[in-house]
Amino acid sequence: MSKKPFLVSVLLWVCASGAYAINVGVLTTEIQDTEFFVVKEIKNQESVAKFVTTKVIEVDNPKSLAPVLGGAPDVLVSPATLLVGPKKSASVKIYYNGAKDDRERYYQLIFVEQSMSKATDLTAKASIEAKQKISIATILVARPRVLDFKYEVDGKGAIKNVGNSFMQTVAIGQCAGDTADGLTPCASEEFILPGERVDFSKKFKVFDGYGIWHGLKYEFIAGGE
């Protein structure tokens, strides 16, 4: 199973027809507890060059997205602005130097694109003609440096995150279907923040178990355990 994002918010301001967003890869980026930076590749799939600026906003959590006062002093993007040629790719590094504590931190990574006219001449005297502006907001999660990954399950479909870092959980089972026994395989996915509890039992006729991601690690817990 592939990992999916908390959220993707795409805002488009289009001044020319036929505009498409740049490709920034996965929409939920994680900095693990032992990492100090990650690399984001930006792909320009169009036939005109693009300036891309990366902005960072700290938020209280990736569901409410309420900004945290004071900005994001622990995160540095290099380069903050880059030029990506037609049909080319470029990379930015996102450095994290947060406190070595037990708190998980969340950020919006916002990639703002400005397209250039095909006729633009990149000389010292040339002016840049912005034809369109596209903003893509994604999520950055910085795992706690003092990581405590724990959860509680009841074997019937409920799971609670009692640790200090988010969990991606996929529950699988049988739902009502047009088969001989009236059942069909189905799944339900949730991102569970610290302190949250999710009860999957009401979503299934038969509950088979949970799949849980912790960073790049995966484990499966069968129903009844």
UniProtKB/TrEMBL annotation:
Domain EcpB C-terminal: from-to ranges: 156-202
Q: Please verify whether the record's keywords include Chaperone.
A: yes
The secretion signal range is: 1-21
Q: Give yes or no: UniProt keyword Chaperone.
A: yes
Pfam families to which the protein is assigned, alphabetical = EcpB_C
Keyword set, alphabetical order: Chaperone, Fimbrium biogenesis, Signal
**Could you say which protein family the record assigns here?**
Belongs to the EcpB/EcpE family.
Designated name of the protein: Probable fimbrial chaperone EcpB
Q: Please give the organism.
A: Solimicrobium silvestre
